[in-house]
Design a protein that fits this description.
It is built from ten helices and eight strands. It has 248 residues and is of the alpha+beta class.
Length: 248
C-alpha cells in the first residue's frame, strides 16, 4: 500500500524528553510508521497507510494540554536551545531539597527554657521525611492528570494500572500527614521503604535503557529529565526509612 507522508507543527516541546512524550502520544494512532519528532524545530512527521486527519491528531493530543498541534506549515515559535548546565537543570529540585533539609534541621533540636540544645538525628530524619512527602505531594496534586501521564511512562505499576498514577500523590500526602502527627511511625517508615523501593525499580530501568523522558517527582510543574539524580533521590528516602525503622 502506498504510504502518505504527514508533517505537522507542534508547540510546547522544550527538550528531548518532550520528543519521547510526543512519540508516545503518536503511538496511539494506528497504521503509522517512521515517526520523527524534532523538538528544536517544533515539528513531527510520520508515514501512514491511510489518511490520518488533523482532527484525529487533535484528539490524541487533547489530554496533553502542554502540546498543541498546528496545521501543516504553520509557524512555530522557536525555543532557546542553549544547553543548560547540571545546576540549572536541577535547580528546582536542589532548592526544594535545601528548604526541606533546612526546616528539618531547625526543628530537630530539643527546646530548653532559654536555648536550643541536644540535636536529635532521629528527629531530623523524621522531619525530613515529613517535609519530603508533604512538599512533593503538593507539586503532584497541582496537576494530577499530567503527573499520572508522565508517571506511567516509567513506573512499573502505573504502566499497567493507570489509576495508580492518580492515586500516588494522595499516598505521599497521607504518609506526610501521618509523619506530621507521629501516627504509627514504624508503619510509616515501612511504607516509605516499600513505596520508594518499588518506584525506584522503574526509574533504574528507564535510566539503564537511556530513555529520554520527563521525571515526575515534582509533578508537571518542572520539566526535569529522568537521570541518576532521580535514583539518588529515591534511594535517600529508602535509606532514611531503613535507618529510622531499624537503627532507632
Amino acid at each position: 500500500m502506498l504510504l502518505t507522508k504527514n508533517k505537522y507543527a507542534v508547540t510546547g516541546m522544550t527538550c528531548e524528553a518532550c520528543e519521547y512524550k510526543v512519540k508516545y502520544i503518536l503511538s496511539q494512532l494506528s497504521d503509522i510508521q517512521n515517526v520523527e519528532v524534532d523538538w528544536k524545530a517544533g515539528e513531527i512527521s510520520f508515514d501512514s497507510e491511510g489518511n490520518v486527519t488533523f482532527e484525529q491528531l487533535l484528539a490524541v493530543f487533547k489530554p496533553h494540554e502542554k502540546y498543541k498541534v498546528l496545521k501543516e506549515n504553520s509557524p512555530v515559535v522557536q525555543t532557546d536551545d542553549t544547553p543548560k548546565t547540571w545546576t540549572e537543570t536541577y535547580y528546582p529540585l536542589l532548592l526544594i531539597a535545601g528548604f526541606i533539609s533546612g526546616v528539618a534541621l531547625l526543628t530537630s533540636f530539643h527546646l530548653g527554657i532559654y536555648e536550643w540544645k541536644h540535636f536529635q538525628i532521629q528527629l531530623f530524619l523524621h522531619n525530613f521525611m515529613t517535609g519530603f512527602f508533604l512538599v512533593f505531594s503538593f507539586f503532584k496534586l497541582l496537576n494530577i492528570k499530567d503527573f499520572a501521564n508522565s508517571f506511567a511512562m516509567y513506573d512499573l505499576l502505573a504502566m499497567r494500572v493507570p489509576v495508580y498514577g492518580k492515586i500516588y500523590p494522595f499516598l505521599e500526602l497521607a504518609l506526610g500527614i501521618l509523619c506530621l502527627i507521629h501516627f504509627q511511625p514504624k508503619m510509616v517508615y515501612l511504607a516509605d521503604i516499600a513505596l520508594m523501593g518499588f518506584g525506584n525499580l522503574g526509574v533504574i530501568s528507564s535510566v539503564l535503557n537511556k530513555k529520554q523522558i520527563k521525571c515526575a517527582c515534582l509533578g508537571a510543574v518542572f520539566n526535569l529529565p529522568m537521570s541518576t539524580v532521580t535514583i539518588i533521590e529515591n534511594t535517600v528516602m529508602i535509606l532514611v526509612g531503613i535507618v529510622l525503622l531499624f537503627v532507632f
